[in-house]
Amino acid sequence: MSSRLEAEALYKVFGRRPDAAVERLRQGADREELRADGATAAVIDASFTVEPGQIFVVMGLSGSGKSTLLRMLNGLLEPTAGSVRFDGDDLTALSDRDLRVVRARKISMVFQHFALFPHRSVLENAAYGLAVQGVPRREREARAAEALSLCGLAGWEKSWPDELSGGMQQRVGLARALATDADLLLMDESFSALDPLIRRDMQDQLLQLQQTLKKTIVFITHDLNEAMRLGDRIAVMRDGRIVQTGTAEDILLRPENDYVASFTQDVDRSRVLTASAVMDGDVRGDEADCGCETAAPDTPFGELCAISARLTHPVAVLDKKGKLVGVVPRQRLVGFLGDEQSAPSVCASPRDRGGDKGGDKVVTRA
Ligand SMILES: Nc1ncnc2c1ncn2[C@@H]1O[C@H](COP(=O)(O)OP(=O)(O)O)[C@@H](O)[C@H]1O
Ligand SMILES: [Mg+2]
């Protein structure tokens, strides 16, 4: 079973008088003011919880503090202030020795440029973390082979790294992390160096693996589309601070400030949204039993469009028990594909439903 990760009021200041800098930050100073004094506030007051089995994505531009935050999560960097708890341990309070043990057994990291050992086979590379743990050869090779197979590399065990494509090498890195059985996976821009198609493939692979492995994952990226694809929850960082934490839909439909909103402008909404986000939920609890096609709250946007195209009336959204929870008139779908201004206005006016002739028919025809 996976474990919970909790970061509480984490600060990391590099440079001069870090503790004094934290005090000033607590009193509202920003990065620029501190820089003038020779201190770099890399991470400022970051708090979040990652539930077992979740993928928590930290998204932000280069320099926003993502890698520094991640290094505090595995104890590679000591926070200037704040604490990190994982699996019952306060990592910030452990002795160096205990911390090394936790790091070797419970935490795995996957970096952007995964350095494979060129003169070791793919299998030996995948088994490296286990070798560090002192796991006997036979067991570590069996576990590494299993991890490679999970990552789609069965049959490549005896190959050399340079016989593999970039995407495959990155899979070996992922396999190395998975082979150790570590509960917590920390992934720093792990897919950022890959070509778009391979990158998509790796994202799918990770999501698929996660369905069975249910690790606790912190995934760092500067790409909002990647964040939205992978993240159960997403933290958006700016200048060292987390400026919003939420689901992909929260970030897209309810940005807490202009900065987050400007980020979401280029996001392909159709990839993120599901029926529950676009439906009109003001449906007066009627039953829907029209014998026609319906959607579920988690039906993806694209599928919803296809259903809508086959119907002459709005799509009914039913929950697991078959209870009507919302309706989606066609023009509502169109509205959500537009810019960020149009979607909320469609949301906000239930009366607009009348615009779709027979808008309620699907509801009342029961
Ligand atoms: N070891 C360090 N010493 C001094 N400054 C650092 C160090 N590591 C990172 N920084 C600074 O902290 C800020 C955040 O960096 P980083 O965490 O690497 O951001 P990101 O991963 O989001 O690109 C940057 O301004 C960077 O220059
Ligand atoms: Mg980084």
Features:
binds adenosine-5'-diphosphate; 6-stranded mixed beta sheet; 4-stranded antiparallel beta sheet; P-loop_NTPase; binds magnesium ion; 366 residues; CBS domain Like; 18 helices; alpha/beta; Rossmann fold; 20% strand
How would you describe what is shown here?
There is one protein chain. This protein has helices at 18-26, 31-36, 66-73, 96-106, 122-126, 128-133, 137-150, 166-179, 196-213, 224-230, 248-253, 258-264, 269-272, 275-278, 301-310, 330-337, 342-348, 361-364, and strands at residues 5-15, 39-50, 55-60, 81-86, 89-90, 107-110, 184-188, 216-221, 233-238, 241-246, 294-295, 315-318, 324-328. With 366 residues, the protein is of the alpha/beta class. A six-stranded mixed sheet has the order 6-7-8-3-9-10, sandwiched between helices. A four-stranded antiparallel sheet has the order 2-1-4-5, with helices on both faces. It is globular. 40% of the residues are buried. Helices cover 40% and strands 20% of the residues. Helix 9 links the parallel strand 7 and strand 8. Adenosine-5'-diphosphate binds next to strand 2 and helix 3. Residues 342-366 are annotated as: Disordered. This is Glycine/betaine ABC transporter ATP-binding protein. One of its GO terms (biological process) is response to osmotic stress. Residues 5-264 form the ABC transporter domain.
